[in-house]
Task: structure prediction
Amino acid sequence: MKKLKIRVPATSANLGPGYDCMGLALGLYSDFTFEKSERLIIEGCPEEFRNEDNLVVKAFKKAYEYYNKKAGAQGSAQVSLPALKILIESQVPVARGLGSSATCTVAGVLAAQGFLGNPFTSSELLMLCTELEGHPDNAAPCLFGGLTASFMEDGMPHVASFDCHEDWRYVTVIPDYEVKTSEARKVVKQDIRLSDGVYSVSHALCMVKALETGDISLLGYSCRDVLHEPYRKGLIKDYDSVREVSLDSGADAFFISGSGSTMIAMTRDEEVAEKIQAALRTAFPAFDVLILEACKEGAAVI
Ligand code: HSE
Result:
């Protein structure tokens, strides 16, 4: 295989109470085209990322190294790492809490999977992405699509996939400013009270059910979080006003996407979604406000 084009979805991690474990793939995509080349060429991203430190390149390399390690242990032949020309056509904004780094790791690992002839299991693909990401909550829905819950145990990621009611609309509010995940992780408390643990488990479980069944009332209550949103909202200066405009316009649920700065307002009603979008566009003309649906399939070779 000489050329490979991979379409990878944006993802929203946490979904309120599912800090570092829940995630959802959304219908907003980045395309990555890989071609074997004489030397590394990267197009479609700022100059500073056109080098070996690019996350796509790192993920590709990591997958080849893993392949060779396994081949070595089995006494099989090693393969050499090909140089690549990579074209990135991205709709997923960087540092906005929509899983842009997962799009890169998933694309790199899936490119290696394609060029090597599909040697990796789904679990290995997720493990490779998670080692680069640090947590599986974006990588899992990015790879497999839909709504996922995931965790690390014995050094391996484990994932469960859930259906998502198809009426849900995710009004996705993307501010014109970044929040760096590294900064957003610093403001979250490292130790929590037992009551906050119970609050989170109960709300996350009910949130999954509400997303599955389309239960509006359950969604409204279960999207509330005590682990990260109370601390992170201070990093998003418009959080309170975006929330107020969304809820006043009829949203059933509201939460920060990943570590922000993007926020998501949910409704099952297309007209309400358009009303929320219009109100937010009027109040925040510099923001992107998109009405997205869930992406069921996850990353794919196209
Ligand atoms: N679960 C991670 C966090 C997602 O909230 O920090 C980062 O995109």
Notes: The pocket of L-homoserine is lined by residues 13-14, 20, 97, 135, 137-138, 181, 184-185, 258-259 (CB under 6 Å).
